[in-house]
Amino acid sequence: MANSTQLKSDALLEQMKQHLTTDAGKELTKKIGLVYQINIAPKKIGFNEVTYIVDLKKGEVTKGTYEGGKPDATFSFKDEDFLKVATGKMNPQIAFMRGAMKIKGSLSAAQKFTPEIFPKPSKM
Fold this sequence. Notes:
Shape: globular
Number of strands: 5
Helix content: 25-40%
């Protein structure tokens, strides 16, 4: 089953979940107020993807599909490319132009999804 795949991104999204409970995380929720779906594939976009919802309305990160309607924007990444974008090692616009990131939904919402919303990684 695809869900048994261990992604490097799992740890980062777990940190994001903790981050959103902090004061800095609550500020993000107030500032952005959007819901993002992130599909992360181990090797190739569109295959064996694991879906996460980063809900910056409620301040939650959950695994699985969004229950509250449609997310504002949906991103698809390969595991390693997601980590590069989230940690600021790859510019999101460049990732998009190279096809390392695919976007569905509102482009204005997508533009607010920047490396700044992620907690600074301690040791990963």
